[in-house]
Specification:
EmrE-like, transmembrane helix, transmembrane, single chain
Length: 338
């Protein structure tokens, strides 16, 4: 974990997983943040990686919506996404274990592995499942705005469970962001059959679960290392997602259209694996603050893609609400890193 310089008050976000995950979906696989070289070439490379990473991650909700439109079910899409991603995490996990042995650190104990699996299953898998369920009911634009408020829940639950002080700016940011969500939500009510409320509730539950995942993962990440921890949790999540599909759905559920398979592959490769390593590569050239700033492009890109690709309406009320949500969370995230 990154050492917090003495003389600076401890910030809750310094204790959590890397902040570049703008939504509860893609933990960043990193060993530690490298010191940026500062050369123009290095900075340009870092910014390019960060921008592409943010843009690829922003496509997640779009590919999910497109797959649903092809008749792919929630359980099937979850299983396909994790099944296609699993080989990458197995390889990276094996390399991480090899590196630990080379450094003479030895393997983590069984208890540590068990805790990582438990945290991944109860936190990340539940968050992902609720997110997928919610996306079946609400627009991608509303989905991404609700999800990106999870850092505010990190502060709230950090105060409740870990006795971290509640920061004034967190309360202000929380208020601004949820006023924005209320503006958007009010505009959606009455235009559908009532699924918006249920879908928003599911996605809010996803944000809450991911916030708890971030908090309870702190200690394990510090002892296991972020790269190995990410791989262990994602492998456990993949096994659970695949097992859940086998138990709950017939094999015929995988008899989907070629387009459905294509969207599932894009979801796994473009919106899951690619941003994981692009954001990691960016951190080798630019600071975490710069990467976080560029990461704010992700929800904006999702909103625009949803309007262009999915045909979702982007009215004045939606734009005002989006500005409030992104502004509130962005100000909170970036103000603590100056």
């Amino acid at each position: 974990m990154t050492t917090i310089p003495s003389g600076r008050p401890r910030d809750l976000r310094d204790e959590a997983v890397p902040p570049e995950t703008a939504a509860p979906e893609v933990p960043v696989v990193v060993r530690k943040e490298a010191e940026p070289s500062g050369s123009p070439r290095s900075l340009i490379i870092g910014y390019v990686f960060a921008v592409i990473g943010a843009l690829t991650f922003s496509s997640k909700a779009i590919f999910i919506k497109l797959a649903y439109a092809e008749g792919v079910g929630v359980e099937a899409l979850l299983a396909l996404r994790m099944m296609l991603s699993l080989p990458v995490y197995l390889i990276v996990g094996a390399l991480s274990l090899r590196d630990r042995r080379r450094r003479g650190e030895g393997l983590p104990g069984f208890g540590l592995f068990a805790k990582a699996v438990l945290i991944g299953v109860l936190g990340y898998w539940v968050a992902m499942y609720l997110d997928f369920l919610g996306l079946d009911l609400i627009p991608a634009q509303l989905n991404v705005l609700i999800l990106m408020t999870y850092p505010l829940f990190v502060v709230i639950f950090g105060a409740l469970f870990f006795r971290f002080p509640v920061q004034v700016r967190a309360v202000v940011a929380f208020t601004i962001s949820y006023v924005g969500l209320a503006v958007i939500f009010y505009g959606k009510l009455g235009t559908t059959d009532g699924d918006v409320a249920l879908g928003a509730g599911l996605v809010l539950g996803s944000a809450i679960c991911f916030a708890l995942y971030v908090l309870f993962a702190r200690e394990i990440i510090g002892r296991m290392g972020p790269r190995l921890f990410t791989c262990v949790t994602m492998i456990a999540v993949a096994v659970l997602a695949i097992a859940g599909f086998v138990v709950s759905e017939p094999v015929s559920a995988l008899a989907i259209t070629p387009a459905g398979w294509g969207y599932a592959i894009l979801l796994a490769v473009v919106a899951t694996i690619a941003p994981t390593f692009l954001m990691n590569a960016a951190l080798q050239h630019i600071t975490a603050q710069a990467s976080s700033t560029i990461g704010m492009l992700s929800p904006v890109a999702t909103i625009l893609l949803a309007a262009i690709v999915l045909g979702e309406v982007l009215g004045t009320r939606d734009m005002i609400g989006a500005v409030l949500v992104i502004g509130g969370v962005g100000w909170f995230t970036l103000s603590g890193r100056k």
